[in-house]
Amino acid sequence: MLIITAFGVLLVVAVLGVMFISSYIGRDDSLVLLPEPLIPPAEPDDSEFDSIDRIDVTPDSVQSVISSLSRPEIYSRNMRISSYWDGGEVEYSIQTAVSGRATSLRSLPSIGDEKRIIITQDTIFIWNSGDTAPYSANIHSTDEWYKIADEWLMLVTYEDLLNLDSNDIIDAGYAVYGDEDCIYAVCLSPLLGYRRTFYISIDLGLVIGAQDFDRDGELVYAMIALSTTVDEVDPVMFTLPDGTAVVSGEVTVQNPT
Fold first, then answer.
1. Is the pLDDT score of 229 beyond 50?
2. Distance separating alpha carbons of residues 221 and 102, to the nearest angstrom
């Protein structure tokens, strides 16, 4: 049986996720969204990494270096996700929040209704602004709850990098992306021939940027974290339309301070 790499699977899920969200909230085909300019990584000055225990990062070592990182237990982020294809593109401003074993998403499209998703280790809730009750369904693979959350959010994570065959990593090292000191890795998808670049924040342990290019060098997917706040989430992000707070298992929602 052919084992499809996590790189290919996530890209397919991202495309399907965009199609699902687009059909759910509705869209205006007359709206043309222009790609935002990509942020090129800056070459790091050694002084910027003085506080980092510098480990030589190469295509052969980057996975072991990344595996030592961990995501914060509680954080919130403002994201922008864009997908491009022949004749069209779609862009979303997305607010995300993670608290313990729960993840929340608020999708703010340029047109249409606001969309909400909350995922715990055993349940997913989906609704649009104005709905009085969410759609809900059980998640059977509780051990994989965080992966399901990332797929629904169409986010690229460092676990995707760890799941790749090391032979598919063609470049890696340190870079400054935006204002963050990062480890970057460039990978090729043997299935699709796409090239993906990851930018993983050393301080946050989160992927703060990613871009996919097709065989022709055309941009097909871009993700960027516009802001990240650690140890704070808005309780509203984990509240259902009827005012019920989502609390499951080890989930705790922290009030901002």
1. yes
2. 26
